[in-house]
Design a protein that fits this description.
Layout lengths: L4 H4 L19 E7 L1 H4 L6 H4 L1 H9 L3 E7 L17 H9 L3 E5 L20 H13 L6 E5 L13 H10 L3 H12 L5 E4 L18 H16 L16 H4 L3 E8 L2 E7 L6 E6 L9 E5 L7 H8 L3 E5 L8 H15 L11 E5 L3 H10 L6 E5 L18 H11 L3 H7 L2 H4 L2 H5 L4 E6 L11 H10 L4 E6 L13 H10 L28 H14 L5 E5 L1 H4 L16 H6 L5 E4 L5 H9 L10 E5 L2 H5 L5 H18 L4 E5 L11 H13 L8 E4 L25 H20 L1
Parallel strand pairs: 1-2, 1-3, 3-4, 4-5, 9-10, 9-11, 11-12, 12-13, 13-14, 15-16, 15-17, 17-18, 18-19
Antiparallel strand pairs: 6-7, 7-8, 8-10
Helix pairs in contact: 4-9, 6-8, 11-19, 23-25, 25-26
Amino acid sequence: MLYPLLLASLALSTGTGSVPPPLEKAPQKVACIGDSITYGSKVAAREKNHYPAQLGYLLGRDFEVRNFGVGGSTLLGAADKPYVRTTAWEEVLAWKPDIVLIVLGTNDTCQNGQRTNWEHAADLEEDARAMVQTLREDNQEVRILLCSPPPMFPNASGLAPERQADLAERAPRLEQIGPALQQVARGKEAIEYHDLARVFTANETVDGVHTSPFGARALAQRLAGAILAKRSKDLPSSGKTVLGGELETNLLNVTTSDYHGFERVDFNLPRSGAACILVAPHQGLRGRPWLWRMRFFGHEPALELELLDRGMYLAYVDVAGLYGSPEALQRMREFYDLMRQDGGPRLSGRPVLMGMSRGGMPALHWATANPKKTAGLYVDNGVFDLSTWPGGKDGHRREAEWAEALEAWGWDEEQGMRQGDQLIAKSQRPAKEGVPLFVAVGLADEVVPPARNSLRLALAWERRGGPVYRWPKPGAKHHPHGVHPPASLRRSILTVLGHSAMPTVRAVPSAEYRGSAAGWGGGTWWDELAKLQTLGREHPEATVVFLGDSITQSLSGAGDRVAHTEGTGPFHRDFGPSKAINLGVSGDRTEHLLYRIEHGALAFMDPKVIVLQIGVNNVAAAGHTAHETVAGIKDVVASLREHEPQAKVVVCGPFPVGATPDDPRRVCINAIHDQLKSLNKEKSALYVDLRMAFLDVRQRPNDNMAGDALHITPAGKDAWLSVIYFSVMDLLSR
């Protein structure tokens, strides 16, 4: 949209395109204290991509984030470079922040010929406490997030042997720092402990310790989530454990232990004597949501650790050998009532149930009997038809387990074969109540056949109006369980609980910095952004604008993005007379495109038609779900409607990535298209489904798709533009 003349004088090199409205109140000041990881010493385009900068993008205008990182600094006061003796520490105190993030400890692990910091490790708790007390001297309300050091990766690729040996010696010491910080935060309302041990992967570091821009993004996302989370402020009843004093006295065999750094309490129920476990997060979410696991506690814990990290409780009651029978349900009711009662942990009245394998039966039985006491049901290669397993009908026969199941339900052989699937028939209650079903399933499971169990349950759930979220695993058998990585499943669970914002709808810049690999010829995403802003300013006459990712970018290449009649290829041939301009950027996702639009991507143009193709990277690179990606695409359309009300948006749904129809990315893409059809009801948008132009009769990629089953060939570019050409011309003529 052509902005007022005043806008033309604004500098666009920093990505500003429009004048934001004034803030109603002063932003909260966030101080990031740390070492070289915080400073971003090895982060490409450091000023734009260090984690405090990316944290600022995520938090938005209501927060002012400053980087007070000092390379080489330590938490320990007796070490060789204590943070509290730096100028940055004095600057933090003078600034008087509202929120302080402390990410120190990496350099404290050094103990070698050059640095002898670890010999003072006994002072960790005392020195952390002193730092906190100093921060609170002038402001008792300051919110302090004490964070464990991020992980080290001695086996990261490309490390010299000396570096590997150094990190291998230091990495185990990180595990001793977290407990000291936990003690400082324990019982303090404005002081929180956050464990960063799982915050990024080796591939997101440049040397096994320091982050790339992608690692900085992961750290920023984790801490933004912690800052924005709706935390529980009420503490449980006083007692030695998270159970609370009153409940502790009524339970049997109460013991405490450590579960991956979290407080674990084991006990037995007073009536049934069933063994139980409760694991508490470091910082509980408001409402005290919990994941209630059925069977196989501790097996494949990646999901539950991510949920614990973000404030959910984890619970377990032993219902082994009961196969979801009425006796299992009775134990579960006893446990549920204890978790809810005053004087105890007072957990939410609606847990998310987790049924792995044979744990699916008790989880489903609870949901069918108590839909209003169920926030969600997550099943992982679940058993829902006992006649298939352990009965052996189309599955594996297990004589001992089958005898147990028949006894638990009071059936004979014939009854078991006839009634083993009864809970699927009863699933209409939770489905009609809108209880979400999360399904992870190995499609080649020969032990528990998916068609008779998880997939059948999912179809029945959908037919009855219940929301279903799928994680299919082509070629996977019954083992291994879990969704790896679990981030998309974790986000989905927290979102339905009201405790997570979709990453696809938050306007943020990209952390991409590999310009040559991205097809830009060099530089970072920020450099490309500046080029495109200049390009738009130089070509205000453009009537058609293409927005998207690398597939869109490939229509013209990054060098000559303006269509002209003398050019070669379908982009110039079809859209040269329309003076089309290509603003596709390799690697972009919906959230990056939102940022570009909201920061002036089209500020100097007044196009009649905008061709939008976005979402492939959300699915294929970021692992976003169909629900998340659709929300992002629709937000992009809404943003274009706001900023370019004169334009019609031609929404080309994501290309059909994946070499086979059961590729999880393809399954996700298909679900996205199903939900995008509703855009045709809007006057400002036209939805176009391109899939059939890129698939053969077996739903496999044809010659229009590239060999990676992700990008498109030159013939594919021609096919794409041929599909939309007449629609675009018609819109231009109106």
